[in-house]
């Protein structure tokens, strides 16, 4: 099973609402279980460089079925996955990417958010995930 | 001036409705005046390969401010723009990409649609453009 | 649903047997429903350049859920999909790639074969598909 | 001399068996003496992002005829090969890639494994190497 467009749009709407709540401008990407782009939204005047980063965060979260920030803890100098970012055409391993699971716990896709601090990016991504819970 | 996310989402909704009307499954991409991705939607079970093509059509339409199919007439063997597809990281020059203009005729972005015949792709892209007229 | 590794290996074994039958040396790739590589085999002394082509054929067949050769008929000069090969990081649109479907007709992956004439490539790919029928 | 497909498949089967033994889901790649992909297997539900990493580990191990983890010790900040990962289209320098040698000690290819901790990846890669000893 993979995320549907209806689900993806619902997650994006929730993420946009949270972004507005906390006074940020975000880029929000949703990928399916195959790591393919399903839906995307760039809020007006959000960073242009985050269009790409949001998509990479979503793919990274699905590639390894974990929050991107968890991977980033392991990819630091001296860490067990140092420089893993060089794989898969370029990963992003700081927070803002989260897997999306169905009720049974199976990963059906992922969300990636970029546009503010990584704490804010993570908060907005979590709002997207929560909208489908 | 560039297309807003509200406008982009309105165009995508109109394109999705037209795609459903003509019984097709489409990928729909909107780029802004800077050729950056603003919004995207992959209808459930639409071709995966068209995720990339829809985005390339949108960028191509904005890069040259003309319908992608017009460019394709010039890029054929012996044509004046033969193999222009090699530029800009890869263009798509068959129909399905259209510039989006404001009331004054200024290009504010573009739409790219892929998932069916090029005639259907063009029809759905036009529906997106018309929604903002 | 996506193809399993067991199924992929069964398809590769059948393809290898057919390749030997017709006295060819092939590269054989299997991708899943998300177009991700599941299994691959390079027969000894097969063309090195076909390692990449086999994988691109498999992805292309899944991207558009059709035999690669069908796409190639449309991508010729003057055709409706001229130069579609520039999308998705590079497509291969001559024969040798085929979708793989389950009993209900849902595409669960694809096979790509390269190493000989396109007729032989297609024959060997078909043997892989048939092994799962 | 280079590894044969029969040898590569034998190494993959041994690696898969070891992966199952230690309760992990792995991606396993074998390259030949020319660093070209010979065989690959993605175990069902293994990380999608490791499809690429397993192949990079195998290539990296053959590029420098040493375990990937040895290279990773030298590529750290301040190290003699700092950021060598930028070369060759992207290297992976944490454990899980090992050269494969023939009886005379000549490198005939390499194995790359990705899907779990780097310790587990290395253990499974070693099982592949041992199967050919």
Textual characterization of the structure:
- Four copies of one chain form a homotetramer.
- Chain A is α+β, with helices and mostly antiparallel strands and 133 residues long.
- Chain A has one domain: Beta-Lactamase (2-Layer Sandwich).
- The first copy, chain A, has four helices and four strands; from the N terminus they run H-E-E-H-H-E-E-H.
- Chain A has helices spanning 5-21, 49-64, 68-74, 118-130; strands at 27-32, 37-42, 97-101, 107-114.
- A four-stranded antiparallel beta sheet of chain A has the order 2-1-4-3.
- In chain A, strand 1 and strand 2 form a beta hairpin.
- In chain A, helix 1 (5-21) packs across helix 4 (118-130).
- Chain A is globular and about 40 Å long.
- The mean pLDDT of chain A is 97.
- Strand 2 (37-42) of chain C pairs antiparallel with strand 2 of chain D, so a sheet runs across the interface.
- Chains A, B, C, D: InterPro entries: GlcG_carb_metab_protein, PduO/GlcC-like, PduO/GlcC-like_sf.
């Amino acid at each position: 099973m993979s995320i549907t467009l209806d689900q993806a749009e619902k997650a994006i709407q929730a993420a946009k609402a949270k972004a507005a709540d906390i006074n940020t401008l975000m880029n929000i990407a949703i990928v399916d279980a195959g790591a393919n782009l399903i839906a995307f939204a760039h809020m007006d005047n959000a960073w242009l460089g985050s269009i790409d980063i949001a998509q990479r965060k979503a793919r990274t979260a699905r590639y390894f079925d974990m929050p991107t920030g968890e991977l980033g803890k392991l990819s630091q100098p001296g860490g067990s996955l140092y420089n893993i970012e060089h794989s898969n055409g370029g990963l992003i391993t700081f927070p803002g990417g989260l897997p999306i699971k169905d009720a049974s716990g199976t990963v059906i896709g992922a969300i990636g958010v970029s546009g503010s601090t990584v704490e804010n990016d993570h908060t907005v991504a979590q709002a997207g995930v929560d909208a489908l819970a």
